[in-house]
Amino acid sequence: MVEVLEGRPANVGFRMPAEWEPHEQCWMGWPERSDNWREHAGPAQQTFARTAIAISKFEPVTICASAQQYSNVHKLMQHQTNIRVVEMSMNDSWFRDMGPTFVTRKAEPGIAKQTIAGIDWEFNAWGGIYDDCSLDRDIAKKIVQIERIPRFPHKMILEGGSIHVDGEGTCITTEECLLSPNRNPDMTKSEIENELKDYLGVTKVIWIPRGLCGDEDTNGHVDNLCCFIKPGVVLLSWTADEKDPQYERSVEALSSLSESVDAKGRQIEVVKIHVPGPLYMTEEEAAGVVSSGHAVLREPGTRLAASYVNFYIANGGIVAPAFGDEKRDKEACQVLQKAFPGHGVVMVEGAREIVLGGGNVHCITQQQPMRPASS
Amino acid sequence: MVEVLEGRPANVGFRMPAEWEPHEQCWMGWPERSDNWREHAGPAQQTFARTAIAISKFEPVTICASAQQYSNVHKLMQHQTNIRVVEMSMNDSWFRDMGPTFVTRKAEPGIAKQTIAGIDWEFNAWGGIYDDCSLDRDIAKKIVQIERIPRFPHKMILEGGSIHVDGEGTCITTEECLLSPNRNPDMTKSEIENELKDYLGVTKVIWIPRGLCGDEDTNGHVDNLCCFIKPGVVLLSWTADEKDPQYERSVEALSSLSESVDAKGRQIEVVKIHVPGPLYMTEEEAAGVVSSGHAVLREPGTRLAASYVNFYIANGGIVAPAFGDEKRDKEACQVLQKAFPGHGVVMVEGAREIVLGGGNVHCITQQQPMRPASS
């Protein structure tokens, strides 16, 4: 087996790089469960495929698919030379949350040591929205094994989508998720904060009270509400409609962010990006999900936790969700292009299919940072 | 998908390296089917594990195991830092035969091109000794995908264990296997020979009439009868007992080899290595196999196709089967040490468990050669 590392990553020089730092590749899963994805996951698979292909124009992609889906995916991707398909079984396909959180450290001249490792957090399906997550709990392990990258196992329950870092010592997260009693009820806020510091290599954690409106599946993951676009600057999901329940959440986040200072002593600057819609699950969409009793119920009329900040930063590219809300999609594209002037912005059509399942582009991707060169 | 290459490997500069050329790693599967491996594959798994660990002292090893077996193997290998465990489903675990045949070519200054590729032969479970080989048919594809190595698909049915090369233009094989009507009945001997030449990058094919006595499963794979120990020299399974049906086969092979000249014009020199036993399947061993109607029957009293040439050449090491025949095991170890004076020889205890399933160390391993350095 590939090495299990002892100790706490920050103590031995590791830190989680910002998402805009160079990647070696992007990892994705493949949706298939009929009790979460409508029409036996067919429409979602099309959007996952589009997402993978979009990212593969910027960096190599690995799609992991179950034995049952392997041939299908292999065939779908037969003309995509920058995508490999690897067999991996899973309960569902949210590699942001199940995958390892990669950390890196600088090489030191004359000292042979690992410059990359994967943190393997405990996983309990976001507090238990489906009942069996035994396969998902092995995803991080399987990914680092394939890459022969050592692993830091951790007993704390944490999903990758519940944290964002600026690569310069600051982490943002939400109290709604990390302090939810279905995660780590025996840990205090300050104990959790210490783990984030020691494992992500940060010195400052900024706590936002709540995540996006409607994001009950994840208990308000930060990656659906806001993200760093560079150190000191956070992009925040926004609505101008005071009657929208999102308004209160956005104002609250704006205020906690604006009042915060990051690890380097910078006052956080906030850039707003308007949410689409509001969007709701239709009768037809809800009816396409096969209720099994083993996963969360999908009911018509549910507010969709749709947000443009749920994008992926690839090497030189931004791959972001488009929801079919023509006005907001276009507006979001412009905000993203302005936020990342050096990146090509690609809006993935059909991202509504991912939000119907409970997340978006960021939730289904996991970057593997480039290993720092040995010196 | 990772690239599919057009054309014939030899025409674009590829050749199959000899097994003693440097490896990047070794690939293995993991046995599990109760209708081929006694006691639900428990004893065989122990021997596979010992084999993998022995090889991992010389070069990195990848063990592929089904989703069902993954946790078991991961745990078994937890202290083996040079072994990774990768999920892969399979019908059985003979990676020599199901895996890709890797070919390499030299880099050319200033020209960006692939220096390694995998030949993906057609596979039909050795003419059909079990009825479903749909998963095995994807093994080669899955392996090259993991490595992002391009693939040469081939329509001819061929197993890796049915060929050996000297890396200098010569291939040895058996008529019993390659001309068996359950493989490629529509191809003539000369057509098959042409495919070997164009895909393995050889110019001379030496045909031995028959393989080892008792090797009905594979129709006499050459890798259980003899192998190159260096260019111009072949190690041949031998018996001094004229009443043993193996005697006739060994004499026949000795004569066809001795009369042959290799691609470089060298007369083949033959070194003999005595087979163990003869060994036969016991009542208890046969009774431990659960008959399913989907695989070959294992019957007590069957002559085991046991041979010491079924070893693996690792980087600096020879990993060979030990059958518990004290005298012959010791003798074989000495012959191997003399044949490979620069290699450490490791005899794997319990190799009888592999021959009970139909092969040995060479049959369950597949070397991935080092990529020639770009110049």
Can you describe this structure?
- Two copies of one chain form a homodimer.
- Chain A has 375 residues and is α/β, with parallel strands linked by helices.
- Chain A has one domain: L-arginine/glycine Amidinotransferase, Chain A (5-stranded Propeller).
- Helix content of chain A is 26%, strand content 22%.
- Chain A is built from eleven helices and 16 strands.
- Chain A has helices at 42-56, 67-76, 95-98, 125-128, 139-147, 175-178, 189-200, 245-258, 283-287, 326-339, 352-357, and strands at 23-28, 61-65, 83-87, 101-104, 116-122, 151-157, 163-165, 170-174, 204-208, 226-230, 233-238, 269-274, 312-314, 317-321, 344-348, 365-369.
- In chain A, the strands form five sheets. In chain A, strands 3-2-1-16 form a four-stranded mixed β-sheet.
- In chain A, helix 10 (326-339) links the parallel strand 14 (317-321) and strand 15 (344-348).
- The mean pLDDT of chain A is 96.
Q: Identify the quaternary structure here.
A: homodimer
Strand order within the widest beta sheet of chain A = 3-2-1-16
The domain count of chain A comes to: 1
* Number of H- or I-type helical stretches of chain A: 11
Record the SSE blueprint:
The structure is a homodimer of 375-residue chains.
Chain A: E1 23-28, H1 42-56, E2 61-65, H2 67-76, E3 83-87, H3 95-98, E4 101-104, E5 116-122, H4 125-128, H5 139-147, E6 151-157, E7 163-165, E8 170-174, H6 175-178, H7 189-200, E9 204-208, E10 226-230, E11 233-238, H8 245-258, E12 269-274, H9 283-287, E13 312-314, E14 317-321, H10 326-339, E15 344-348, H11 352-357, E16 365-369
Parallel strand pairs in A: 1-2, 2-3, 5-6, 8-9, 11-12, 14-15
Antiparallel strand pairs in A: 1-16, 4-5, 7-8, 10-11, 13-14
